[in-house]
């Protein structure tokens, strides 16, 4: 049997503001095997980012459970969620996952330290593959949009995650920069990392092993 990297079991998430209630997720179930690449697509507001945030344990579902490599992520103390995330999950988010007062290389090092797996060789290899060797000492604020997206991927992969979550990872990239990013994600999947990518990009849909379409907070 294939190892299951992430299980989302009947996830519900409602946002309430005054009398308004947004039902962002309404019973989403998803299972992703080690090494599998799943694209989560759907119109704006369909719940893609909400789903990724719950899988990362950065927010709690109002119903349902998230399991990462067989360990419960949802509804447990934040310190335990953070430890599980640091060890098992890589996150690439639209607004960047780079800490501004650390250089690109220091950002990668920090992600490795949090996971307890420091490797200069891996850091330099990631930066090389992403065309960032010359930007290792750069501050995040000095990076172009494309460079920042690639540096974010280096950080997300620093801990050799069992699960990579990427929210519009190629949103900032032109076709020329999209290719190495997707190639590195494919390489990572071949080592057993499960990948969930929320994206509107047709290239990402074609690239994925499986496409899951959300509409109004449900899997279509
Ligand atoms: N923190 C929040 N507070 C209130 N409503 C929210 C919050 N986050 C998301 N929502 C609402 O939940 C719904 C799902 O949002 P979500 O960001 O998950 O969609 P999405 O599919 O990722 O959209 P996009 O493609 O535009 O990024 C939307 O109606 C959104 O307005």
From TrEMBL:
One of its GO terms (cellular component) is plasma membrane. PROSITE patterns: ABC_TRANSPORTER_1, ABC_TRANSPORTER_2. This is ABC transporter ATP-binding protein. The keyword Cell inner membrane does not apply. One of its GO terms (molecular function) is ATP hydrolysis activity. CDD domains: ABC_MJ0796_LolCDE_FtsE (cd03255). InterPro entries: AAA+_ATPase, ABC_transporter-like_ATP-bd, ABC_transporter-like_CS, ABC_transpr_LolD-like, MacB-like_ATP-bd, P-loop_NTPase. It comes from the Bacteria. Belongs to the ABC transporter superfamily. The keyword ATP-binding applies. It comes from Acrocarpospora macrocephala.
């Amino acid at each position: 049997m294939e190892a299951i990297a992430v299980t989302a079991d009947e996830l519900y998430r409602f946002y309430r503001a005054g009398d308004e209630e947004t039902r962002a997720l309404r019973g989403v179930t998803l299972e992703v095997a080690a090494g599998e690449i799943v694209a989560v697509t759907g119109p704006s507001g369909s719940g893609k980012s909400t789903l990724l945030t719950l899988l990362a344990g950065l927010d709690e579902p109002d119903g349902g459970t998230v399991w990462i490599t067989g360990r419960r992520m949802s509804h447990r103390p934040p310190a335990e969620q953070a430890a599980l995330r640091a060890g098992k999950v890589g996150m690439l988010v639209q607004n960047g996952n780079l800490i501004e007062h650390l250089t690109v290389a220091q950002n990668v090092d920090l992600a490795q330290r949090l996971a307890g797996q420091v490797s200069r060789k891996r850091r330099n290899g990631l930066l090389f593959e992403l065309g960032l060797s010359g930007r290792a000492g750069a501050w995040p604020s000095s990076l172009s949009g494309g460079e920042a997206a690639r540096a974010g991927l280096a950080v997300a992969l620093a801990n050799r995650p069992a699960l990579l979550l990427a929210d519009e990872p190629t949103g900032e990239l032109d076709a020329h920069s999209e290719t190495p990013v997707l190639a590195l994600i494919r390489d990572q999947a071949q080592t057993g990392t499960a990948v969930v990518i929320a994206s509107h990009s047709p290239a990402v849909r074609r690239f994925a092993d499986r496409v899951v379409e959300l509409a109004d907070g449900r899997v279509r």
